[in-house]
Amino acid sequence: MKRQARKTRQPNHQMRWRFVLGFWLVCACVLVVRAVDLQVIQHDFLAHQGDIRNLRVEPLAAHRGVIRDRDGRPLAVSTPVVTLWANPREALENQEQWSRLAGNPVISQQDFASKVRRHESREFIYLGRGLAPEAAKAVLDLNVPGIHSLTEYRRYYPAGEVTSHVVGFTNIDDQGQEGVELDMESHLSGKSGRKKVVRDLLGRVIQDIEVLEPAEPGEDVTLSIDLRLQYLAYRELLGAVQQFKAKGGSAVVLDVRTGEVLAMVNQPAYNPNNRGNLDTGALRNRAVTDLFEPGSTMKPFTVAAAMEMGMVTPSTTINTHPGTLRVGSKTIRDHRDYGVIDITTVLTKSSNVGTSKLALAMEPLALPNYLERFGFGQATAIDFPGESNGMLPLRSHWREVERAALSYGYGLSVSAVQLAQAYAVIANDGVKVPLTLKKVASQPAGEQVLGKPVARQLVQMLETVVSQVGTASRAQVPGYQVAGKTGTVHKVVSGGYADDSYIGLFAGLAPATDPRIVTVVVIDDPRSDAYYGGLVAAPAFSRIMGGVLRTLHVPPDRPEGLLAGSPDTEDRS
Q1: E runs forming strands in 62-215
Q2: Nearest CA among 505, 460, 509 for reference residue 486
Q3: Contacting residues for 149 by C-beta, under 8 A, at least 6 apart
Q4: Which DSSP category does 457 fall into?
């Protein structure tokens, strides 16, 4: 009995082994089933969940096209910058780490906390845009959860305010706002792409996976502007405005054969790289937006009309005695009684009486219709943003006083670029070519709007204006024959004309023997003792034109020591 009892108490090792083996087999089966479930059944779902936590699709920035001058010098380029942004929800989950931003010069802890709490329901807010990579790195290196970065591009303008009115600028989203940047937005703007990246738990990009859509950079644009001439014109215009305490001014330089704008400057100007304290009045490209009555600079076109109609020749005489002319209720006056003078002297002395008599001898609509052929009252072909059309009245009936005033530049309005275009017609043997701010490969076809013989005679007549006995001896350029015309007009104010506010003008061309360049200078509201165009605008014209001709290596057409005229000659118009 005792032996049988002991025998029954001995452990069953075989059963234990089977139990342990079964337990591990069950565990193995569970693991296999779970692995199959994870790796096969739920693979797509889990892979997607992992991807959305680590994979991100980010924009791939595209830079704008480069704007260059005619010789390839950069006028506007895009530089890479860093934009910092935050996910407020993510940041709020890690508030204990905000202290890392304490004392940070780019984003302070207080500013960060304020922005995040103010937009706690959002998943994207900007912290700082257009930051230098070094400044952004000072924030990113702190590894604050919720702060991320993007690479963008910011526009930089190497010539600053010198080309500001032509080139314009972009906004913070790199979209053109003024000038060529706005006018050629569709060409300059690129198309952003997309790329897939891997981010770590702190939101940092640790790997670029693939480019889903490549970025397409914008097209480069080559302007007709010559940066050397732009600097030259800017310096001389600024000097004239400061010297005569003027409100502002403009200068335009054209190639008469191609219609290219070689320089276009204005005062006041602005720095497109730093617009923090920008005066919005400085944004205007006055050369194309601001209108003024052209005054005596219009007299050559009145004379040209009379010559083309066969009414007069350069040597035809006209009686301007006694220096006044009564037209209706208005008395038209010259600076003095010039008596009987020829048509050339009408321009030389800038006789209002002489041009008024020519206009009154024409058919009533003849002169306005003739001026329209030169582009007055119409926008030019440069199609610049904000360009003004000017104003050339279209009337079925013209009173005599209106026709007389039109002959010496009152009763219509023009812009500096329109006036330059009209003088380019005279310089180009009467052919009007479209103006352009883009560099052209060949000379464009033009329209003959003025007879070639008349155009050449007119140039010779205008040479006398820039002579010892003319109104613009200060417009002379050493070594070159110059032709041109001064203008001085009262500014239009509410209720009529200002008695003590003027615009001084000079429009001219050179070399007169074979015209290549036309330059127009406008000085707005000079406040010194001098205000006549021959005193305030002609000297600036001389310096600009002389520099342009020498820079472009245009051969002199007059020996250096044979210049007529004296700077002490009284200049009036």
Answers
A1: 67-68, 74-86, 125-131, 147-156, 193-199, 205-213
A2: 505
A3: 82, 83, 84, 85, 136, 140
A4: H
Task: Dump pLDDT digits (tens) for 526-557.
Answer: 998 889 999 999 999 999 999 999 999 999 98
Q: Which two tokens stand for residue 212?
A: 């889903």
d(CA 458, CA 454) in angstroms, rounded, equals 6
| Residue 465 in tokens | 């204006």
| Cα separation, 242 vs 244, whole angstroms | 6
Cβ distance 424 to 259 under 8 Å?
Answer: yes
Which of 382, 480, 490, 483 has the alpha carbon at shortest distance from 439? 382
DSSP state of 219: P
Place of tokens 């732009």: 230
Characterize 255-290 residue by residue with b for buried, 16 or more Cβ atoms within 10 angstroms of its Cβ, and e for exposed.
bbbbbbbbbbbbbbbbbbeeeeeeeeebbbbbbbbb
Per the document, the length of the chain is 573
- Of 14-23, 153-162, 295-304, 518-527, the range with the lowest mean pLDDT is 14-23
**Residue 467 neighbours by CB under 8 Å, 6+ apart:** 348, 473, 564, 565
Q: Which residues contact 129 (CB under 8 A, 6 or more apart)?
A: 81, 83, 84, 152, 172
- How far does the chain reach from its first CA to its final CA, in angstroms? 150
Strands 67-68 and 221-222, by their bridges, are parallel
Catalytic residues: 296
Among residues 346, 363, 247, 240, the alpha carbon closest in space to that of 298 is found at 346
**Rounded-to-integer distance, Cα 194 and Cα 217, Å:** 13
Give residue-wise pLDDT tens across range 129-149: 889 889 998 999 898 988 988
Q: Are 536 and 504 in contact (CB under 8 A)?
A: yes
The helix (run of H) or strand (run of E) holding residue 261 is strand 261-267
CA 65/CA 61 separation, integer angstroms: 13
Tokens, residue 1: 């009995």
CA distance 244 to 535: 10
Phi-psi region of 377 (alpha: psi -120 to 50; beta: other; left: phi over 0): left
